[in-house]
Design goal:
The protein is α/β, with parallel strands linked by helices. It contains ten helices and twelve strands. Strand 11, helix 8 and strand 12 form a beta-alpha-beta unit. Bound molecules: 2'-monophosphoadenosine-5'-diphosphate. The site of 2'-monophosphoadenosine-5'-diphosphate (ATR) has 13 residues, from helix 5.
């Protein structure tokens, strides 16, 4: 029940009306028995939103497009990896201070670590946008050898140079023997369900294949990976885990990932 003790959390972004974050957080809060509520705020004026967070004592905030980098100058402190990525998806309001974190990379890395020990593994990362950038830092943090491929080669090269990774043209990448392939592009997302970011015939049996696309949950890329005998991780896994990591930062308690995934699956049906 919402009462005078209820702690408020939320997400700021624009647009934000299709966000699944309220589903993740309100379901988890309820199961954890926390007197907390989570709302979506479509923000026009970031400075005013920050004043609101401070003034109203909102305890924790998720940050999404287009504010992940723009928010940084407004914060009092930045956790180390969020500083390296230069993107914040989580604010923790603690002792009057706004502290910025990034749980996107943790969501991806923890999902992968359920399937494979990452250290020194060769990973092919498809994409060089915001999501790819967070994942790249996570892979670097875990000591992977990463190859980046991106539609616009220049953008791929820029990300690779920042990270000390390789960015290869498609022809060279095709011959690589990698243990993990991650799609961090939007290819395969509804309504382009019939597209895949990577040729089926190049998917080797036994490798781990992860997709960040979750609409549809079972993308063409994952479907073909399963047909080729790969071990697959769907986009809801990273989404659920980045949210779970936020709750852990805010409350010090770990929510149940399987239940969060169940809530997300039902919301998408
Ligand atoms: P996000 O923050 O979700 O990562 P983004 O920053 O817009 O979104 O990045 C989208 C990524 O998907 C980019 O790597 C983009 O490639 P470009 O850098 O060449 O634009 C990739 N992408 C989107 N549509 C694509 C398509 N049809 N084919 C190949 N790559 C595509």
């Amino acid at each position: 029940m919402i009462n005078a003790q209820t702690q408020l959390y939320g997400i700021i972004g624009n647009p934000v009306r299709h966000s699944l974050s309220p589903i993740i957080h309100n379901g988890a809060f309820r199961r954890m028995g926390l007197n907390a509520a989570y709302l979506a705020f479509e923000v026009e004026n970031l400075a005013a939103a920050i004043s609101g967070i401070r003034g109203l004592g909102i305890r924790g905030v998720s940050v999404t497009i287009p504010f992940k980098t723009a928010i940084i100058p407004f914060l009092d402190q930045l956790e180390e990896v969020a500083g390296k990525i230069q993107a914040v998806n989580t604010i923790c309001h603690e002792g009057g201070k706004l502290i910025g974190h990034n749980t996107d990379w943790r969501g991806a890395v923890e999902a992968l670590e359920e399937k494979i020990e990452l250290r020194e593994k060769k990973v092919l990362l498809l994409g060089a946008g915001g999501a790819a950038r967070a994942i790249a830092f996570g892979l670097q943090e875990r000591g992977c050898q990463v190859f980046i491929a991106n539609r616009s080669l220049e953008k791929g090269r820029k990300l690779a140079a920042t990270m000390g990774f390789a960015c290869l043209p498609l022809a060279a990448i095709k011959g690589l023997d990698v243990q993990v392939i991650i799609n961090a592009t939007s290819v395969g997302m509804h309504p382009q369900d019939s597209e895949s970011p990577w040729p089926k015939e190049l998917l080797k049996e036994g490798i781990v294949v992860m997709d960040i696309v979750y609409q549809p949950v079972r993308t063409k890329f994952l479907h073909e990976a399963e047909e080729r005998g790969c071990r697959t991780i769907d986009g809801l896994e990273m989404l659920a885990r980045q949210g779970a990591a936020q709750i852990e930062i805010w409350t010090g308690k770990k929510p149940d990932i399987r239940s969060i995934k169940g809530d997300l699956q039902r919301a998408l049906e």
